Amino acid sequence: LPKLPVPPLRDTLTKYLDSIRATVTDKQYEKTQEIVKEFGSPGGLGEFLQKKLLEHAEMQDNWVYQFWLDDMYMKVRLALPINSNPGMVFPKQNFNDQNEQLRYAARFISGILDYKVIIDSHLLPIDRARSREKGQPLCMEQYYRLFTSYRYPGVGKDCLVTSQAQQQVHENEHIIVVYRGQLFALDVVCNSIRLSDDNIYSQLKRCVRMAQEEIDNHLRNYGNKPLPVGIMTSASRDVWAAVRRTMAENPTNQSYMAEIESCMFVVCLDDKSDVSMANQMIHGLGSQFNSVNRWFEKTMQFIIAEDGACGLCYEHSAAEGIAVVQLIEHLLAYMFLQRRKLTRMQSMCDLVPPRHLKWEISNDVMEKIKIAANELDRFLSINNLDLYVLRYEGYGKEFPKSQNMSPDAYIQIALQLAHYKIHQKLVSTYESASIRRYREGRVDNIRACSVEALRWCEAMVHGDKIDAGTKISLLRNAVKKQTDIMVQAILGYGIDNHMLGLRQIAEDTNIPTPKIFADVTYKQSNHFALSTSQVVPTTMDAFMCYGPVVPDGYGACYNPHTSSILVCLSSFRESSTTDSRTFAMALAQTFDEMKQLCLAASSSVTSSSSLVSAANQK
Ligand code: COA
Fold first, then answer.
1. PANTHER family this protein is in (predicted)?
2. Measured from the CB, is residue 428 less than 6 Å from ligand 1?
């Protein structure tokens, strides 16, 4: 694959000014314009940093990869649940009892192993761009990281490690099973033979029985349940990093951690709960519920609950949703076909028993676990994460296509108007743009809060006297601008990565923070009060969801189906300015209005063109 280009400095600076215009005052804009001018002046700091960045790019496969990974994930100290890990909801199942749950889980695990065989044999078909320079091959590295990566906590900075050795086929491979906070290492491939569904089922039953025995013993001996170590991974990164370091001084604990870090994936056998599945997948509902049943920093955590709720919680730094969705599509298809291949029955006595990870915990660490549990509960007790899943049935992506508009740009512009209706302003908006056309490509940002979008929003909200013809042309203008920004971002000419690169080069060169990055406008432009992305599972009942990235913002993960649009909206109840349901209602109304506007405009075009043709006939 080609290397990601470093965009020309002048282009990025011009686009940067354009991108902030709709969200800052005239006075602030003028000030920023001056700062940008000085930065970009001939022989100025911008040129110096650009030169250094080009030199850095020469030596790297992808000049932004590490900068971006650190900035987006590794240096972020916030707790993983809600702030970073997305959740994904799968079609709900009906289990009559725990045996059915475990049988389903066994088949589910087989389905993942089935996919793993394809990954290990490097037989995944190479993804190709579906539009804009259609057919270009896309970077596949993320797929290979799904089962081989681990996000190690560190004080000040985490570290994503992908084991190259693990990318080869192994004779023995294990997973981690969690039941009621008890963790088990379970071998699912032994001497290169995959366990059969029946054997996995028997082993899961063993895990459940052993966990329950441990919990009952603890209750009998100490009057309380064993402390769930996994909840520590829900703490802020610095806190967990310090506790982990202490725990790892004990060789037993260290070997358990190694089991978790080197496993393929985690399977959480959850208890039933009566709240939304999306909440369950994102955070597990607190220490009295299923948050004890997690290990938040392992890349893939699959959740299968007793009440049939199924989904996943995934640690985001190793891969974007697209790779995860491909795996899920395979998995659900596998489950549907209920195939049982490449498995061989073994008698129970041949099976290595699951290894129960019985931690040795000091009093000090016990206190830390209690604090972590309280912290999470305090956050969740006020039911802070406000999720609303909008299933808009009015139309799907075919409608914007019929209007010769990009569905993605159309939805982004709708999100802008919905926001404007509620808050009477536009805000800095993030949309993930895949840059997998390039070596080691991850994402850049598509910024939707353009001046063109603002003009359209103003006309729609305040323009009673503005006619439909003008409004549709403002809409088309906004969609066109959005499409241009999107195309530039996916072709490697976005501005966010480039600005980050220049900032990071300055930092690495020990240059005092350049004015352009200390400017309040730059900070504001990185406060993403609307954080969005398109994630497109084809299964109707499966969707992805995540929390907002700032306290006063929204998250919006959407899937334009052929004839419906699913949008999972999130915000924090602690914020007095946001409300997910209100946003969802405004968005649904906006989708209706946009269609009416397009149809009104096309019918007026049709009626005027039929007048012309009637006149011609006369
Ligand atoms: N008229 C008619 N049809 C059009 C059109 C137009 N003007 N513009 C686009 N279309 C069609 C496309 O050909 C495509 O057709 P298809 O359904 O047959 O494939 C369809 O509309 C969708 O195109 P569009 O909505 O423009 O977007 P896209 O599918 O190219 O996706 C991004 C755009 C930015 C979402 C995508 O490039 C991307 O980067 N995705 C990754 C996002 C990501 O990383 N998410 C995970 C985050 S964890």
1. CARNITINE O-ACYLTRANSFERASE, CHOLINE O-ACETYLTRANSFERASE
2. no
